[in-house]
Design a protein that fits this description.
Layout lengths: L1 E4 L3 H5 L2 H13 L3 E3 L9 H5 L3 H14 L6 E3 L2 H10 L5 H4 L5 E3 H8 L12 E5 L2 H6 L5 H7 L5 E3 L14 H4 L1 H17 L4 E4 L2 H13 L5 E4 H6 L8
Parallel strand pairs: 1-2, 1-3, 3-4, 5-6, 5-7, 7-8
Helix pairs in contact: 11-12
């Protein structure tokens, strides 16, 4: 099976290791991965802020970049949700991309039919479900099922898991005090579990939570789900 990786601009610019981990994971499972170089931002920041006219060229570019692929894999619930739920308002060609876009855990569980990907990650981990993945994509227990199958991993329940971390894209810019308070609550709940790692499927959330944890000097590091699943006993993820 051949797929296209839609790495997202946040991962490309700030968290390239997540893209590398996604490719390593998929190739380990026998998937051929293409990286269309024309891809850029999906347009979500502009769209969510009300700049529809500025979003349109990014939508057109994204649609062109991924034409011809049956599956487009995205290690980000928020970007997948943008394409699936908002691209249809930009016309039929944009709408046609939506059903072919799969968030990483959806692709693994629903398309490949796997939950045990052969990963090894000997750490206590708690999982934060991002708002887009939870509410718009309906990822449900897919991420948890994947984590529960990882050898050596101890999954600990996160209190208030379904509460937003406070990032919300431009929400954090427009409402910084509220955003910071929500982030501090999320960090406090994660520390309460005793886990040393908070895992998530959206690096935008992990950026916010990780930065908050750093400022609060909390004993917590954030790791994208793809990096946990890419880790094996022979090649542990660093």
């Amino acid at each position: 099976m051949r797929v296209a990786l839609f790495v997202t601009c946040v991962n490309d610019a700030v968290f390239p290791s997540t893209g590398v981990a996604t490719v390593r994971l998929l190739e380990r499972l026998g998937v051929e991965v293409d990286f269309p170089p024309a891809q850029t931002c999906c347009g979500q920041p502009q769209f969510n802020t009300g700049y529809r006219r500025e979003t349109a060229p990014l939508v057109r570019r994204t649609v062109r970049a991924f034409e011809g692929y049956e599956h487009v894999v995205v290690p980000s619930g928020s970007c997948a949700a943008m394409v699936r739920h908002h691209y249809p308002s930009f016309g039929p060609r944009a709408a046609a991309l939506g059903p072919r876009v799969r968030e990483l855990t959806e692709f693994l569980v629903d398309v490949l039919g796997v939950t045990d990907v052969g990963a090894y990650f000997p750490h206590a981990v708690t999982y934060h479900p991002s708002c887009h993945g939870l509410r718009l994509l309906g990822l449900g227990d897919r991420p948890r099922r994947l984590l529960e199958a990882v050898r050596g991993l101890e999954l600990r329940e996160l209190p208030g898991a379904e509460e937003c971390c406070g990032f919300g894209g431009t929400f954090a810019v427009k409402n910084p005090d509220v955003s910071a308070a929500m982030g501090a609550d999320k960090v406090a709940h994660a520390v309460e579990t005793g886990a040393g790692v908070l895992c998530g499927a959206d690096n935008s959330c992990l950026l916010h939570v990780g930065g908050t944890a750093s400022r609060l000097k909390a004993p917590l590091r954030t790791v994208h789900l793809a990096e946990v699943l890419a880790s094996t006993e022979e090649e542990p993820w660093r």
